[in-house]
Amino acid sequence: MQTISISIGLWFKIMKGLRRRGAGVRESAGFLLCNPGKSKVVKIAFYGQFDKSVSESGIIQFKGAATFFEYLAKEKLEVLADIHTHPTQNTRQSDSDMKHPMVRIKGHIAIIAPNYAKDFFIFPKNCSVYEYLGNFEWKKFEISKLPMHLKLI
User: Fold this and answer.
1) Which of the listed residues 40, 58, 117, 142 has the most CB atoms within 10 Å of its CB?
2) Which one, of 7, 15, 1, lies nearest residue 84 by Cα?
3) What distance in Å separates the CA atoms of residue 6 and residue 86, rounded to the nearest whole number?
4) Tens of pLDDT along 27-49?
5) CA atoms lying within 13 Å on the CB side of residue 13
């Protein structure tokens, strides 16, 4: 698996976007996007851009896939990973997270950020990172072996 690379500026833009969308009371989420075949995050697409009702229930229920795939084709981008928030410091996958991967392709990366991203200085080491293995099985990465790093660009 390739290492995911992301600028520190874009990382904090993602955290700010998650924090604003969750408003401290509900989960928020987005897709980390890259150019085809690359492993550098170049853009974030928040779920709410494609499904306004995504967080109405308090948890993520994304129904905007068709519009999102049109967007990917138009922008010539691919999904590198997804990210969503949990309400507490606990960033372990819930049963729902495990049973409903946002991308059901082996190798897909799912990132979970704590506290609805309310903290101003959340780094990848504060998140949990999982790789989808297929058949609703996941591998959790140890903090020392995260498949991503922040790069000052």
Assistant:
1) 117
2) 15
3) 21
4) 889 999 999 999 999 999 998 78
5) 14
